[in-house]
Amino acid sequence: MPITIADVAARAGVSKTTVSRVLNGRGELDAATEARVRRVIDELGYVPSARAVSLARGRTGVIGMLVPSLTWPWTGQVLQGAVDTVESGKYGLMLFTCNQGDGSMRQFASQVDAKAFDGLLVIEPEGTLDYITELHAAGLPVVLIDDRESRPQFPSVATTNRAGGRQAALHLLELGRRRPLVVSGTPGFGCVTERTEGFTEAFAEAGFPVPAEALLDGDFTLESGRAAVARAVAGGVEFDALFAHNDLSAAGAMQALGEAGRVVPRDVAVVGFDDVDLAALTTPPLTTVRQPLREMGVLAARMLLARLAGEPFPTEPVVIPTDFVVRGSTAPQA
Amino acid sequence: MPITIADVAARAGVSKTTVSRVLNGRGELDAATEARVRRVIDELGYVPSARAVSLARGRTGVIGMLVPSLTWPWTGQVLQGAVDTVESGKYGLMLFTCNQGDGSMRQFASQVDAKAFDGLLVIEPEGTLDYITELHAAGLPVVLIDDRESRPQFPSVATTNRAGGRQAALHLLELGRRRPLVVSGTPGFGCVTERTEGFTEAFAEAGFPVPAEALLDGDFTLESGRAAVARAVAGGVEFDALFAHNDLSAAGAMQALGEAGRVVPRDVAVVGFDDVDLAALTTPPLTTVRQPLREMGVLAARMLLARLAGEPFPTEPVVIPTDFVVRGSTAPQA
DNA sequence: CTGAAAGCGCTTACAG
DNA sequence: CTGAAAGCGCTTACAG
Questions:
Q1: Among A70, B49, B200, B226, whose Cα sits 20 to 30 Å from the Cα of A149?
Q2: Coiled-coil annotation: which residues (chains A, B) (predicted)?
């Protein structure tokens, strides 16, 4: 029932080889022959089967993308950038998440082993970097998004986490804040280390080193922001500013501050990271370090596509700088 | 270099047929033979090539999913539910969006024609329902998410949009509100019609029909919520309540209300739709109709997987009811 | 400029 | 219980 290249060949009175040549634009073809074959293709509405093409060519035409969770507010932006780019490169995008823990990774691994895609885009999922590194070493083209300095030999797209942390610090210092609380993201992520370092270095250089008790581990969730503030307040830590590693935990922190009777920005000036939609909607609106999320997705996908087209990977991580967006949560106090 | 079924067969001293039988658990096999083949498979780390399997079997093992945009805050939830389910069904999920308009749809269509997936999950993208209907009619198993009453013959997962609209209305009526403004989603979507109808019917039944001037078209964006309120205020429309078709436009509406000097909930009680994370974080927190987003993704994927496993589709749309979440934006006034 | 044939790596009747 | 052979629908040397 479904028409194949053989049907086209028969109807056009040529060999399958010739039809294939027309399809792929390879070799010199008689113009009349080519026109005739094209006409038949149109008449029949023939489209080559992706299954057969991929087996014959030894490539799938699919790019895999592994993402930690789709419910994080910024994942959508990166993903959208990647999907758009992959799509215009005539590839398909196969999506995987680590949402179900080990089960997910097993499923993902089985698709890798089955060679279900030609290249991989990864937003580093907690604790799988070693596995991804193996894949890369085994020859699967991989581009990592975000986690920059942990494996410099890895093709990756990053943003200026360290500079972003520094921007946040300089802004708070300028406002006269001297005792910041830092609510970090999940420990172990390269971006987490960098953001904290950029931030604390700037404070230290200004003569106000951040004490260890003011550095609190979070995990990028709303709840972790709340919990960190609650812990700090309960522990008697004094602070007049707060830097969170993402907007979501900053929003959680602001809620907890409100519950603790601290007014933002009067008592505590708050800076987040990411600039997701939510940031403009908190009360007060959140000052934040803007990550070029969509752009990172686009660039990572472009690098991978270029690689699959035969070009070499860049040897250095590609870095897209962060922006700084000032809003009400750090409004200067009269 | 990559090992094939032939390598396994040779090393185990059996035919490829036998290896295939072990792999797929088909036919009676001598226990010793099977054990030997399994051992060789393990030793060699052999995994069948997805490309070859799909060509031989005539199926891809992939499910396509078409989504309007990944940057809408609720898409992630539905998608996550679908991905998790598809994954545990041993299928892959190929993601498509309509983000680039016609170009996207062309790319999507070419993958459909190439039979790059066995079944399709769709969150109805504006204006492509006819095309999807064709695909369904042409034999591609399709499950639609959300847009319920526009094509009753379509396998779909929906939620109680009409009942949700009614819940919102009854809640506002109970609070003594009589002149609601409705900020609808993109016109033409089935859910939009239903939400408005459920809402206006309840008001009419209570003796307070909603005038046409209070029904404003939006498009689910933050900006459309702002714009609608601005229009109503400028037009002199009087209102003491607002029902928005999603949380994002409700948030936009609340911003515009603030700018217009109207206090929520004192002057205007606001109800949204969806219950995305954002809803709990607006000021005041947003009362909203909760959609079972993740559950809808899970169920739609299950229906499709069951269908691909040979079971028939349910003949009726499957409906998961909405919930109603009361928060500060409709707090009773003393 | 064009075609016959082999091959991609599996599955599946068909035989035994 | 097991295997030889054909077939899935293309691409790609190899010949002419």
A1: A70
A2: none
A239 in Cβ contact with A268 (< 8 Å): yes
Which residues in chain A are classed under CATH 3.40.50.2300?
Answer: 60-159+293-322, 161-291+324-330
Closest-CA residue to B90 (of B123, B59, B68, B114): B59
Closest CA to B84 of A113, A112, A82, A70: A70
**Average pLDDT over every residue of A99-119:** 90
Which residue ranges does chain B devote to CATH 3.40.50.2300?
60-159+293-321, 161-291+324-329
Scanning B45-121, the segments in alpha helix (DSSP H) are 50-57, 75-88, 102-113
In this complex, the answer to whether residue B24 has its CB under 7 A from any atom of chain D, a nucleic strand, is no
In angstroms, how far is D5 C1' from B23 CA? 20
- Confidence at residue A150, expressed as pLDDT on a 0 to 100 scale: 56
Q: Regarding the domain delimited by A60-159+293-322, which CATH topology (the fold level of the hierarchy) does it fall under?
A: Rossmann fold (3.40.50)
Question: Straight-line distance from CA A56 to C1' D12, in Å?
Answer: 9
CA distance A77 to chain B (A): 6
> d(Cα A332, Cα B132) in Å, to the nearest integer?
54
Q: Quick: pLDDT tens for A65-76.
A: 999 889 887 889
The number of C-beta contacts closer than 8 angstroms across A and B is 157
pLDDT mean over B236-253: 94
Average of per-residue pLDDT values in chain A? 91
Handedness of CA A71, A76, A78, A79 (dihedral sign): positive
Nearest chain B residue to A139, by CA: B2
Topology classification of domain B60-159+293-321: Rossmann fold (3.40.50)
Q: Tell me the CATH number for domain A161-291+324-330.
A: 3.40.50.2300
Residue with tokens 């409004």: A331
| Nucleotides, chain C, CB distance < 7 Å | 1-5, 7-13
Give the homologous superfamily in CATH for domain B5-48: lambda repressor-like DNA-binding domains (1.10.260.40)
Q: Is the pLDDT of residue B149 over 70?
A: no
pLDDT tens per residue, range A248-263: 899 999 989 988 999 9
pLDDT of residue A151: 58
Cis peptide before B265 (omega within 30 of 0): yes
Are the beta carbons of B111 and A255 separated by less than 8 Å? no
Strands B142-145, B119-123: parallel, antiparallel or unpaired by DSSP? parallel
- B84 contacts B298 by C-beta, under 8 angstroms: yes
Q: Quick one: DSSP state of residue A46? A: -
Mutate to test the interface with A, among B66, B95, B275 (most CBs of A within 10 A): B95
The pLDDT score that the predictor gives to residue B190 is 79
Provide the CA A318 distance to its chain's centre, in angstroms. Answer: 13
